[in-house]
């Protein structure tokens, strides 16, 4: 896989109550990813950037909501989330990764 493509796959980590609970209980990390990314590319990107071993990747497509702005009707863009399960004993420290 192309290294430049892998660097553009992960857009941002998702930090919320739900994602923190997943990280504590199931050793999973949630990421906002590129809309064209595949599971294999997401796995390779996480392993390349954070130097950890990935066990599984789950991907969720989220449809954008329709919103009104005064008289006009707009639409939020579609997003894609990836839940990355790490192998036992693996951990991602975001402060060291930068």
From TrEMBL:
Domain of life of the organism encoding this protein: Bacteria
GO MF entries: rRNA binding; structural constituent of ribosome
Cellular component terms per the entry's GO annotation: ribonucleoprotein complex; ribosome
Gene Ontology biological process: translation
Keywords: Ribonucleoprotein, Ribosomal protein, RNA-binding, rRNA-binding
UniProt function note: One of the early assembly proteins it binds 23S rRNA. One of the proteins that surrounds the polypeptide exit tunnel on the outside of the ribosome. Forms the main docking site for trigger factor binding to the ribosome.
Family affiliation: Belongs to the universal ribosomal protein uL23 family.
UniProt-listed PANTHER family: 60S RIBOSOMAL PROTEIN L23A (PTHR11620)
Assembly information from the UniProt record: Part of the 50S ribosomal subunit. Contacts protein L29, and trigger factor when it is bound to the ribosome.
Protein name (Swiss-Prot/TrEMBL): Large ribosomal subunit protein uL23
Origin species: Limnobacter thiooxidans
Taxonomic lineage of the native organism: Bacteria, Pseudomonadati, Pseudomonadota, Betaproteobacteria, Burkholderiales
């Amino acid at each position: 896989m192309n290294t430049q493509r892998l660097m553009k796959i992960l857009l941002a980590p998702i930090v919320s109550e739900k994602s923190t609970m997943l990280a504590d209980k199931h050793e999973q990390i949630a990421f906002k990813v590129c809309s064209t990314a595949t599971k294999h590319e997401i796995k390779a990107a996480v392993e390349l950037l954070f130097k950890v071993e990935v066990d599984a990747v789950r991907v969720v497509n989220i449809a954008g909501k329709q919103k009104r702005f005064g008289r006009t009707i707009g639409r939020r863009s579609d997003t894609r989330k990836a839940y990355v399960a790490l192998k036992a004993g693996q951990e991602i420290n975001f402060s060291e990764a930068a």
